[in-house]
Amino acid sequence: MADLAMAHLDGVPVKRSRGRFAGVSLGTWVGVLLFAVASVLGVVVLLVPSLQSLWTDQSLRSTFLAPASAGHPLGTDSLGRDMFWRLLAGLGVSIFVGVGVAIISITLGLIVGIVGGFFGRAADLTTNVVIDVTWAFPAILLAVVFAGWLGPGLPAVILALALTGWASFARIVRGEVLTLRERDYIAASKVLGRSRLWISVRHLVPNLLPLTFVMSVFFIATAIVAEAGLAFLGLGAQPPIPSLGAILAQGRDYLTTTWWPIALAGGVLTLLVLLLNSVSDQLREHFDPRHGGS
Amino acid sequence: MAREETSLIYALKRVGYAALVMLLASLVTFAALRVAPGSAVTSILDPAKTPPEVIEQYREELGLNLPLFQQYLNYVGSLLTGDFGTSLFDRKPVVDLVLGAASFTIVLALAAFVISFGLGVPAGVLSALNQGGWFDRSMRFASSALMAIPNFVLALLLVLVLGVQWRLLPVSGATGPLSLVMPALVLAAEPWALTTRVTRTATAEQLGADFARTLRARGVSRRRIHWRHILRNALSPVVSLGAVQVRTLLGYTLIVEVIFRWPGMGSQLVQSVVRRDYPVASALALLLAFVVVLASTVGDLVLRWVDPRVRTESMVVK
Of A94, B2, B110, B259, which residue has the fewest beta carbons closer than 10 angstroms? Predict the structure, then answer.
């Protein structure tokens, strides 16, 4: 990356598109595709009632924490449920929560960030206070409040994570808007008598899209980890929903006898986050070469 | 002279703003924990077995029968006099419980902070000085890995290897300095990775700057340029990161403390929230919020002091 930076300094045009599609390398695309297929399968297995027995079936109680066998390629858990299907459904939970949280926090963050950066000093002060108050609280607190209010489960988790997560994005959006609003075309729109709302929708939002894109991948990754963390503490999805965090918590109880439930669930979780981080890094480099190499 | 004044006014404004944020934060903790159903009374007394008069008397004693607005005023009033109430669960003063737990969390968080910055800043500078070399590449790999692996997974892996397999370190509790090692390492992992990366990027940018070239041309020694001039200039993003790190560390202590049964604020918060022990939970939440607000205030003030360029920006710009 160092030579890339130097090339920039010398004014030499940089070729960045070799072996890449939409800024993301082919190897990463393969990973994304594999995980996408697995996640879609996971969501299907999670939501289609007739398929739910795959990961709830306890008829194999005798095969308590059994290692891999012919019928169960990844063994069974401590209640005799098939580990492969539980991991797949757990991946479905992760993606479901990750995408849900990303959509809500991105929308909220865009709105609040634009209002703060573009709608005057009073709006800016107000949104700043709201952002800072939100920012000061740990998500876990909100998760418990929502769990008490809506009943524990995935909707409570999604709301809690989204309502604490948007603040960091709003802050970034506001910063971007502060530079965007000095551009000539914005000034021109103002002179033409366009309303702030019109300028926001027509000029600010399209210019913020690359950033939004990068950040949504980042949000999916952080939400997936946070959901697993809440489930691990017993504050997230309730049994028998097979969150990866719940599988880890279960594996922890049998840590002294077997290691592979933790290795499997932890491995899936880590690979997923690694993949999403790498996608978001590559997208950022693609959209903004200045930040490359960090 | 004029600059001194503006700095003072800036500091006052910043502190006033922090106070406003804290006031609203107190409203939020109050509302959130009261709105959450499952009354504190019913979690202590079994409603099926206790006569209604007793329950009513208990509610009155706790002030839970007053209108919410009045309850909030009482709450803020007592907060300002340093009275955080008593735990609904074991009837001990909240201040004692929270301070006892806070000392454990402070030890843990400080250890993690020292590890992440003490190892992160030098690692970042060294990576930037030999970009593409083996050290740079291995740090890059290590930081990617540590950013991807969730801290509770890392914790379980360490417990499995160091605690269960090799029996090197105690698995849980706070039974001496050795029991600090695993939680502190887990807590420091991701902040270390971020610090290393930010320091590397900032240093790499400064290496190519005009002032560095001028210094080299004047014959100033490389070591002096790197560790004195460049590091000082590269430090401002690292300082901003520090304030963010405090928040990250606090968020992570919640789960890390529970895993290692470390008796700090994190495990206490989770416990009190599950028990619906309102006074303890809201005091802890407020304290955590206070630390986060304090860190970002101090971070802004330090940033202004370290980096004179920031002084030209207006107050709300952060």
Answer: B2
